[in-house]
Amino acid sequence: MGKAGMSVLTSGLAMDWIREGKKDMAITSIWPASAIQSGATRGAENLGDLRKPTIFSDAILAMLRAPAEQVNGLIDTDEDFLREKCGVTDFSKYSLIEGTTPRRIMGLPPNTFSKTGPQKFPSLVVAEQDDEGQRVDSTKRHTSRL
Q1: Which residue of 11, 30, 75, 100 has the smallest Cβ count within 10 Å?
Q2: How far is CA 140 from each of CA 49, 84, 120, rounded to the nearest angstrom?
Q3: Which residues, at least 6 apart from 55, have a Cβ–Cβ distance to it below 8 Å?
Q4: 54 contacts 94 by C-beta, under 8 angstroms
């Protein structure tokens, strides 16, 4: 499943959980803002473009500690979550090679503007999303033919 599909799934499940009153659980989608050292990057030519895996684990742990309502439906990158929600400003400890600044592979760097403003994940909110019509429990509607 691609990132767009995961984003739609995240938004849809988050919306359903809110409708169902599930306030103690959350679903999020998070991606690395820069390439991370892993089995997939073994043999990479430019190690200066890699970050240590701890940036991703730090972001995940921070999400797990956050109130569910703060992260339910969130679509973000590890770096942006740590910056915006945890106040991290110095990411140098995550660079695989000391003194390098890994290239972002997701979105534009902070304070970088496109013609329409800072690059963020698109909102998947639509005007009709709160109008789900009449809910039907299909398991009660059909009887088994077995």
Answers
A1: 100
A2: 54, 45, 42
A3: 32, 34, 36, 78, 79, 82, 91, 94
A4: yes
Read off the pLDDT of residues 35-91 as tens digits, 9 standing for 90 and up. Answer: 999 999 899 889 999 999 999 999 999 999 999 999 999 999 999 999 999 999 999
∠ at Cα 57 (91, 87), nearest 5°? 40
CA dist., res. 93 & res. 68, Å (int): 28
The three-state (H, E, C) secondary structure of 80-114, written as one string: HHHHHHHCCCCCHHHECCCCCCCCECCCCCCCCEE
Q: What would the two tokens of residue 8 be? A: 């739609």
Tokens linked to 130: 């709160």
What's the rounded Cα separation, in Å, for the pair 85 and 71?
A: 10
**Tokens standing for residue 54:** 């701890």
The residues that bridge with 77 in the sheet, in sequence order, are 31
Identity of the amino acid at 53: P
